[in-house]
Amino acid sequence: MRVLLILNFFACICFANTLQANTITKVNSVEISKKKAVVLAKETTDGTTLKITEKINFYTVRILKSDGHIVDLKINKKTGEVKKD
Question: DSSP assignment of 40-77, as one string?
């Protein structure tokens, strides 16, 4: 009887660890959408969005500022980090 209880206990622990590992993988694999990338870019630089280009790891958002300058911002798809190009 004790052996069955111990085996059942270990099976539950293994199953719980597997579920936790799958959940962490799914959370890390979520990418930022194009709309969210534009919102993040506009938080950094005010202006009119001209174009958004999608690459493998980032989006490039082109913004026309009110003074006439054009700014390209790179938004990391996984982290949401914004960098000026």
Answer: HHHHHS-SEEEEEEE-SSEEEEEEE-TTS-EEEEEEET
Helix (H) or strand (E) holding 82: strand 82-84
How many whole angstroms separate alpha carbon 44 and alpha carbon 52? 15
Name the β-bridge partners of 54: 59
The mean per-residue pLDDT over the stretch 35-43 comes to 93
Sign of CA pseudo-dihedral 32, 75, 43, 48: negative
Question: Is the Cβ–Cβ distance between 8 and 16 less than 8 Å?
Answer: no
pTM exceeds 0.70: no
